[in-house]
Amino acid sequence: MPENTGEHDCSCGKGLTRRGFLSTAGATTALVAVSGRINVNVAQAAASEITSEDMAKITLDINGRQQRLLVEPRWSLLFVLRDRLGLSGTKVGCERGECGACTVLIDGRPRYACMTLAVEATGRKITTIEGLMNGEQLGQTQQAFLEEDAYQCGYCTPGQIMAAEGLLRINPDPTSEQIATGMSGNLCRCGAYPHIINAVNSAGAKKRN
Predict the structure, then answer these.
(1) What DSSP string runs through 101-168?
(2) Helix axes 140-147, 193-208, angle to 10 degrees
(3) How far is the C-alpha of 92 from the C-alpha of 102, rounded, in Å?
(4) Domain locations in the chain?
(5) How many other β-carbons are positioned within 10 Å of the β-carbon of residue 197?
(6) Domain 56-208 listed as CATH 3.10.20.30
(7) CA gap 159, 186 in Å, rounded
(8) What is the per-residue pLDDT across 94-114, written as a single tens digit (0 to 9) for each?
């Protein structure tokens, strides 16, 4: 990279003068203005094509409620939950199945919403962090995370809770090793893992009682 001397090279490295550059820019702007209608028409045609051919009608069972939606087949469940249904408790993290921030339950088992297409979830029972609550009352796993201080920044917490909930539905009395294995797909960048294990143990005790 050339040294920054604080001066601008007006020739742009190809013998183009400042006046020539401005003239070219003006002509390009005029061309864009003239061709703008064509571009708009193309965009409208593309949008129309997506609406008529690529959109799919689906029904999702989310937190016990039937949600009828028109979606693009490429849309992830994460996108639909947050941007189409306003269920923002499910967090956007890495969006490539590595961090677990977007974990939800599908048929009772933890799944990454970012790696699940919305159309894949049709006919299956989806539970998000909002679905663990009873009105304004926290669910048992949510309450255990609160009591055990199993979070710091809190961003990964919804995914951690959903992973814990899924684990406890399968095994309500897991060992510490089973908890570590069951929660291994969810990263906590703050390093609150000892508190998370305590919270899962506490939640399991609440469910058993």
Answers:
(1) TTEEEETTEEEEGGGSBGGGGTTSEEE-GGGG-BTTBPPHHHHHHHHTT--SS-SSHHHHHHHHHHHH
(2) 140
(3) 6
(4) 56-208
(5) 18
(6) yes
(7) 7
(8) 999 999 999 999 999 999 999
